[in-house]
Amino acid sequence: MIQVSHLTKRYGQNTAVDDISFEVQQGEIVGYLGPNGAGKSTTLKMLVGLLQPTSGEISVAGYDSQTELLELKRHIGYVPEEAQLYEHLTLVEHLQLIGRLYHLEERLIAQKITELAQLFDLSSQANQRISGFSQGMRQKCIIMSALMHNPDVLFLDEPFTNLDVGTVTLMKTLLQRLAGLGKTILYCTHILEVAETLCPRIMIINAGKLIADAPVAELREQTNQTALNEIFTQLTDTTGIDEKTEEVIRIVMEDTPNA
Amino acid sequence: MLEKIVERFCDAPTQYRYLLKTEKLIEKRALEGRNDLSNMSFAVTCVIGFIMSVLFTFMPFLLPMDTFTFSLIGITMSMMMIGIWMIPYFDILLIPVHYPVIAHTPVSSRTYFLVKLTRILTYTALLLGSLNLMPAIGGIWVHKGEFSLFRLLFPFVYLPIVFMSGFFTIGVMTTFAGYLTKLYSKRTLRNVAQYAQFIFPALFPVTLILLSRLLQYLPMDKLVSSLKWFYALPNGWFAGTVSLALGQIEPHFLILAGLAIAATLILVLVPLRSIAKSYSEYLSYLLESGSRQKSKIRVKTPLLGRMFQNRTIRAGLCLSFVYIRRDKHLLRQFFASLGSLIMLVVILDQEWVLHAFAIGLSPGFSMTFYFVGMGIVSSFILPIRYSEHWKASWMLRLAPLSTTYDLWRGVQAAAFLYFVVPCTLLMFCMATFIWGALGILYVLPGLIILLNYVILFPKPLSGLPLAEEFVQSQMAGETLIPFLASLFSIGIFVGIQFVTYLLNIWVYYGFYAVMVVGGLISFIHFLQKNRRVEETVDA
Predict the structure, then answer these.
(1) Cβ of A97 and B395 within 8 Å?
(2) What ipTM goes with this model?
(3) Quick check: A214 and A201 in contact, CB under 8 A?
(4) For chain A, which terminal residue's Cβ has fewer other Cβ atoms within 10 angstroms, N or C?
(5) Do B297 and A80 touch (CB under 8 A)?
(6) What pLDDT was estimated at residue B19?
(7) B398 touches chain A (CB under 8 A)
(8) What pLDDT, on a 0 to 100 scale, did the predictor assign at position A78?
(9) Is A85 close to B326, i.e. CB distance below 8 A?
(10) B293–chain A Cβ distance below 8 A for any pair
(11) Other beta carbons less than 10 A from residue A151's beta carbon
C-alpha cells in the first residue's frame, strides 16, 4: 500500500531524510519512531505530497507521487504534528470546507459532521469558532478532517498530542478497527508506550536514516532488551542520560539575573 | 536614534532591544522569498510621498507666502498623509500575531507596547523624511519672511518640528487605538476598532469637499484672516513653533509653541503611559475565546454558495464569505473603502458631476463609479490572499485539487456576488433616479470594467486564498499600486470616450458599443480560459 524507495530530502547542506526505503502492506499499522529532528515529519510530508523529495520514489495506494499526486491525495488522510487551522471558521464550517475539497455530497458532509461531532464530544462546540478551541479540541478537529473522506491510507503525525485519556482510548481502538477493515496506517510518534501497544511493526529513523524496521518481537531479540524505550535508546545511541541530567540540574540551579 | 530615544522610556531596555531585533528579523524573513516588486512597496509609498512634497516645494515660487503659511501647509499635509498612510500599520499594535510566544515571559506591558510603537514610529519616520525633506530645503526661499538671516536656518528648524508633529499624529492615533483596545473588555464593543478605523479615511475627503464648498462663499481677503482658525488646531501649533524658532518672537507664536510642546508632553505622559500599562491586558483578552456555546449543531450552506455546482469553487466562496465577516484585516480594509461611499454622496450632490454630454457619457458619474467600485472590490480581492492563519493553508495544499485555480475562482465569485453586484445595483439605482431607464447605459461600462478587473486581478503565486503571511510594509504598498494603476488606466479610458464624443457623436456611440461588447467578450474569454487551464491539468 505504501512503497518508498531511496527517499532523500536535502535542505542545502543539511540532509533531513537520507536514502530510506520501506514498504507497508494493506491493513498494517506501522509505528514510525525517532528522536526529535530525526526526519519523521519530513518523511510524512513527502508521503502526503506537501514536500517535494530531493530524490527517490513514493507510491501510496498504488499511485506514484510524481505522476499521480492527485489520485494519491484522494486516497489518503493526514493528521499533521501541528494543529494549524483557519481559526475564524467554526468546526462545522471547517469540516464543510474539507468535505467540499474532497468533493463529497453536501448531504453526506452534513451527516458526517453531525455524527462525528457527537462521537468526538464536540457537538456543543460545533458552531463555535476554532479560535476558542483548546489544543485537544483542535486535534480532534484535525482527526475528524482526516477521516471525513474515508481514506485508504492514514498518515498520523503525533495524533494523540493534547488528547484526553478517553479520546486516546477511543482512537487506539478506532485505529485497530480501521486496520482490520483494510486501512493502512503509518503512525509517527516519539511516545513509545503508545507505539508499543498499537503497532505490531516498528520503524526507527535517526538523523535521517532508517536504522530499524521489524516487528517489535524481532527488535527485542536483536537488541536483547524487553522494553521498547530500551530498544529505542540502544538503537539511537541515546546514552549518557545520567550525566546529561546532572548537567541540566547544574545549569538550572545557577543564579539567574533578573531581566 | 529613534530606538535609543524610545528605549529611555522603557523599564527593561535589554528585553526591549532583543524583542525589537526579533520583530525586525521576523518581518525581514517573512519578506524573503517574495518577489522584488512587493518588497519595494513601502519604498513606492515613500516615493509617492516624495513626489507630492516636490510639488509642494514649488508653491512659494508661484504664490507668495510667509513662513507660517508655508509651514502650516507643509505640516498639515505631512500630518494628514501620515494619518492616512499609517492606518494599516496599526495592526502591528492591534493584532500582534506573535504575542502568545512571549505572553508567559516576564516582559512588562510597557516594554512590549514600546516595541510595537517603535516599529510604527520607524515607518512613520521614513515617511516623514520622504514627505518633508524637499519642503525643508524649499522653505529657505519663502519670500514674504522678513527675517532673511534666519531663513537659512529653516531646514534645521522645520525638520525636527515636522517630525515632532508626525509623531504627535501617531501619538493621537495610538491613543485612539489604545482606548479602543480597552473597550475590547466589553464584548459588544469588540469590533469598534474596525469601525472606528474607517472614520479617518472617510472624514478626510468629506472635510476637503465641504471646506472647498465653504470657501466658495468666502471672499479672498477674508481667507488670509481665516488662517487664524488653525491656531486652534495642532498643525497651527507646530507651524507657530517653526515661526517662533525662526525669530518671529510674537505673543501668539509663543502661545502656539507652548501649546505644541505641552500637548506632546501631555500625550506622552498621560494617555500613552496609561495605554502602555494596560496593553498586555488587552492582548491577553485577544487570546481568549469570545464565542458562546450552542447546543445544537447547525450545518448550513450560504444561500449564494448553492449557486455553484463545482464544490471547490463553493469551498472557496464559503471560505471567503466567512472571512469577509470575521477577519479583522478584511473588515478593516472593507470599512476603510466605505469611506468612498460617503464621498459619493457629497460628489453626486455637485451638479457638474452629473452632467451628461451624451447618452451613457457622464465622465463625473463614471469616474465616481470606478473609484468607488475599484476601492470596494480591491478592499477584498487584495487582502484575501493574506491571513494571520496562513499556516492552515496546508489543508488546501493537501486536498486533491486538479488546480488551485478553482479555489481562486471561488474568491472571484465572492468578489462578484458580495462586492461587484451590490455596488453596481447601488449605482444603477442612482443612475435610474437621474436618467430614468437610460440609467443602465451609464452603469454598463463601469460594470464591464469591474468584471474584467476581478477576473484579471493577479492571483497569488500559490493560487490559494488566505495562504500568505501578512507583512505590513508590503500590504500597504500593494493596495496602493494596483489602485493607482487602475485609476490611471480608467482616466485614460474615460478620456478616450470624451474625445470620441468631441469628434463625432456617432464615433462615440461606436466606441461605446465596441467597449461594452469587447469588454463582455474579454470577460467571457478569460473566464473560459481559466476553465480550459483547469481541464488541461485534469487531463
Answers:
(1) yes
(2) 0.81
(3) yes
(4) C
(5) no
(6) 85
(7) yes
(8) 94
(9) no
(10) yes
(11) 20
Query: Residue A24 has what pLDDT?
Result: 94
| B414-419: long-range contacts, CB 8 A cutoff, minimum separation 24 | B414/B316, B414/B317, B414/B320, B414/B321, B414/B324, B414/B380, B414/B384, B415/B377, B415/B380, B415/B381, B415/B454, B416/B451, B416/B454, B417/B304, B417/B317, B418/B304, B418/B321, B418/B324, B418/B380, B419/B376, B419/B377, B419/B380, B419/B381
- To the nearest whole number, what is the mean pLDDT of chain B? 78
Could you state, in order of their start, the residue ranges of all structural domains in chain B?
2-286, 310-538
What is the rounded average pLDDT for all residues in chain A? 88
A contacts of B190 (beta carbons < 8 Å): none
- Helix pair angle (B251-267, B234-245), 10° resolution: 120
B295 has pLDDT over 70: no
Residues 441-500, chain B, touching A (beta carbon < 8 A): 466
Q: Which of the four pLDDT bands, split at 50, 70 and 90, describes residue A238?
A: low
pLDDT of residue A57: 93
Homologous superfamily of the A1-75+152-214 domain (CATH)? P-loop containing nucleotide triphosphate hydrolases (3.40.50.300)
Instruction: Render the burial of A103-142: b for 16+ CB within 10 Å, e for the rest.
Output: ebebeebbebbbebbeebebbebbbbbbbbbeeebbbbbb
pLDDT in tens, B495-531: 888 899 888 899 999 999 998 999 899 888 888 776 6
User: Nearest-CA distance from B113 to chain A in Å?
Assistant: 17
CB hemisphere CA count around A166 (13 angstroms): 6
pLDDT at residue A228 tops 80: no
pTM: 0.69
Angle B381-A52-A209 from CA coordinates, rounded to 5°: 145
**Confidence bin at B473 (pLDDT 50/70/90):** low
What is the distance between the alpha carbons of residues A41 and A157, in angstroms, rounded to a whole number? 7
Residue B321: closest C-alpha in chain A: A89
Stretch (H or E) spanning B463: none
Domain boundaries, chain A: 1-75+152-214, 85-150
Q: CA B505, CA B361: separation in Å to the nearest integer? A: 11
Cα of A57 vs its chain's centroid, Å: 20
How far apart are the CA of B398 and the nearest CA of chain A, in angstroms?
6
Pairing of strands A2-11, A29-33: unpaired
* DSSP secondary structure code for residue B418 in this structure: I
